[in-house]
């Protein structure tokens, strides 16, 4: 009887964790807004490194948070303020880049470039939603930060996060035909930039 109860609790935890991973990964946020804009501007193939960087970078963040990184915020509360300031400034710069993605460079005539794997991976460390997701996941589903619980969180997010965020790049790719008009593409990019800033405002 005790084994059955423990097994049921484990199954319930897995279902709840999977639901949290899906909802938090697939809902709008900085990563998803940027992937959709990249898919629309550069196509799905050129956006793949960006999507992989998001998935790998976020999974690495969960691992490091799970092994004790979140304790630093308890010891040094000022780190939270520093992170917010850096995040705001960097995301505002990214919003400007997205808004002007369709505009060719005045000197070279070249358009912007999609985010690389490394850039997307490093971006997770200044992404407020990524921090919120990682900290909440560990606090709820691995509160004691034991290896087994942390590993479960990492595996579940590793399986769910990448397909969920990549869906936004696919949606951007689908819109490419409609956005073939420079005016429409410019309006779309400015809308994505505004939504990125809006998601930042809600998260901060």
Detail the topology: elements first, then pairings:
Layout: H1 2-26, H2 30-42, H3 44-75, H4 78-99, H5 117-123, H6 128-141, H7 147-174, H8 182-203
Helix pairs in contact: 1-7, 2-3, 2-7, 2-8, 3-5, 3-6, 3-7, 4-8
Q: Your description of this structure?
A:
With 204 residues, this protein is mainly alpha-helical. The protein has one domain. The protein has eight helices and no strands. The longest helix has 32 residues, at 44-75. The chain is globular, with a radius of gyration of 19 Å.
What key attributes describe this structure?
single chain; 204 residues; mainly alpha
Summarize the model shown.
With 204 residues, the chain is mainly alpha-helical.
Uncertain residue ranges: 103-110
Element order, helices and strands? HHHHHHHH
3D shape:
globular
- How much of the sequence is in beta strands? under 5%
Number of strands: 0
The oligomerization state is: single chain
Number of helices: 8
Helical content stands at over 70%
- The assigned structural class equals mainly alpha
Number of domains: 1
How big is the Rg?
19 Å
Major beta sheet summary:
none
- Mean pLDDT metric: 83
Instruction: Please give the alpha-carbon distance between the first and last residues.
Output: 46 Å
């Amino acid at each position: 009887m005790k084994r059955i109860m423990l097994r049921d609790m484990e199954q319930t935890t897995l279902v709840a964790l999977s639901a949290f991973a899906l909802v938090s990964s697939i809902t709008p946020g900085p990563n998803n807004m940027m992937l959709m804009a990249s898919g629309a501007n550069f196509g799905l193939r050129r956006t793949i490194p960006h999507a992989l960087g998001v998935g790998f970078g976020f999974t690495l963040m969960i691992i490091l948070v799970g092994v004790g990184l979140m304790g630093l915020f308890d010891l040094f509360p000022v780190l939270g303020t520093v992170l917010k300031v850096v995040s705001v400034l960097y995301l505002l710069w990214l919003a400007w880049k997205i808004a002007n993605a369709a505009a060719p460079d005045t000197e070279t005539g070249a358009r912007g470039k999609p985010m690389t794997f490394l850039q997307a991976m490093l971006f997770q460390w200044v992404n407020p939603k990524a921090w919120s997701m990682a900290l909440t996941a560990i606090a709820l589903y691995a509160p004691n930060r034991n290896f087994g619980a942390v590993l479960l969180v990492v595996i579940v997010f590793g399986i769910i996060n990448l397909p969920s965020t990549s869906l936004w790049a696919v949606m951007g790719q689908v819109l490419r035909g409609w956005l073939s008009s420079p005016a429409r593409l410019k309006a779309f990019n400015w809308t994505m930039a505004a939504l990125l800033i809006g998601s930042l405002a809600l998260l901060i």
